[in-house]
Design a protein that fits this description.
Layout lengths: L1 E5 L6 H12 L2 E4 H9 L3 H25 L4 E4 L8 H7 L3 E7 L2 H11 L11 H16 L4 E4 L5 H12 L5 E4 L6 E6 L6 H6 L6 E6 L3 H13 L6 E5 L8 H13 L7 E6 L1 H13 L5 E6 L2 H7 L4 E6 L2 E8 L4 E5 L8 H18 L1 H9 L1 H5 L3 H20 L14 H10 L7 H18 L5 H13 L12 H9 L4 E2 L2 E2 L1 E6 L2 E5 L4 H9 L1
Parallel strand pairs: 1-3, 1-4, 2-3, 4-5, 7-14, 8-9, 8-10, 10-11, 11-14
Antiparallel strand pairs: 6-7, 12-13, 15-16, 17-18
Helix pairs in contact: 1-7, 2-3, 3-4, 5-6, 10-11, 12-13, 12-16, 13-14, 13-16, 13-18, 17-18, 17-20, 18-19, 18-21
Amino acid sequence: MKIVLTGFMGTGKTSVGKELCRKLGYRFVDSDTMIEEREGIPISLIFKKKGEDYFRKVEMEVIEKISRMENIVVATGGGVIKNKKNVERLGRRGSIIWLKADPKIILKRVMLEGGKRPLLEVEEPLQEINRLLTERLPLYAQADATVDTNYITPEEAAQEIVERLGLDSPVVTVDLKERSYNIVIGSKALQRLGLRLKEFRPSKVAIVSNKTVFPLYKDMVLKALNDVNITPEIILIPDGEEYKDFTWTYHIHGELLKARFDRSSLLIAVGGGVVGDITGFVASTYMRGIRYVQVPTTLLSQVDSSVGGKTGVNHPLGKNMVGTFYQPSLVLIDIDTLRTLPKGEFSAGMAEIIKYGVIADRGLFDYLENNRENILSLGDSIIHVIKRSCEIKADVVSKDEREGGLRAILNFGHTIGHAIETVTKYKRFLHGEAIAIGMCVVSDLAVRMGIFKKSDSGRVKKLAELYNLPTSIPDDINASDLMNAMELDKKVKNGKIRFILPESIGKVRIEEEVDRNLLREVLKS
């Protein structure tokens, strides 16, 4: 990300920029300094010897170079914003902040600096400042946000920018080279959504949500977007796993076409896993791919479906059987959304967090056992377990984006869980509940195969119960129906049902084939 500071001379671009770099660990870049280094003389001499037109030409070339940099804070010359192309280039994957100050304060600061400013070498410098500010006001208004630096220190101004952009929140990076993106986790993240979207400079924006979730966050989301002059299209689908299908995919495509969305447009998925999956699938297929941002509002989607780029829709014969691998541009997790989440939905999300502990982090598993009350009350522990879960998934996805090997471990409990969802037509269990049952059954299977301790299997079941999750297959679900559903799972290869089996808490292995008779016996028991 880039933070671009614009504004008149004397508004604090350099001092505030350096404070920002200190806080964020970014590199500081001053466009005027780069010009002086390139030309070998001070800017005042460039103006005198070669004129302002030459200076603006060099400035434009330097801005083009800066626009390709990442993780920097840029202090721009006062006139950079006069050129529309400069603004467009600096705005790529960056936020433009206008530092604003009164003319008298500007003049006082410039005089105290003692440096010569070519544009103020006139008889009435205050009058000239007023004239130039009036002239540039519509140009500065192009910035994404404004910070008044009149009566605050550079450190206070930097802190205000950090808070406005949400850069004080924990961040996890999914490292996929040219497709890398950040997962931002924190409180009040929805209020900063608009500024985070501006860095993508979309031509049009659409919010995809459902009729249950969107009314909860409508006012907050629309205000955040309206504050940065974004007026989104709103596309709502019914609430429920059964609506994650081609009918509603086709509907969303149609709404985008009617609104004349193009390849530089952007979608925002506001909701749980169903909304995220179908929005990602639409984004990957509309005009062969447009950008999208995940704003997951359930615990399950925050730690699982919003991260990793798996998109898809269901078929009557199987869950997520039609889909793509397509990464979002950003995942914005606002933990405050969990306060409106029904208890059952929260428990369903905890199933995926338990999964991460079993497959990769015994310490996380222990933490879940020992911090139940703080987690359930949405204390500091909830941010810790969400962040750790995202870190584990980000690490796995970075190493194996398209599930060629390692990523398969994320499916622990899912083969049986998906089968349970399929035979119950996605109506009886929440996804996390089905996965919790799947994890407990697979743990029992691993015990019977002699690769997992019975005591550890008992810990998995007890932890699931601790977070109010089901742990066994109901008696009225037929084992043969489950076997038939598993035969159609995406993880089946050459007729062999692949399972992720625990060897110990924190370590699993991929088993390419499991004895069918033993599997059927475990399902029945």
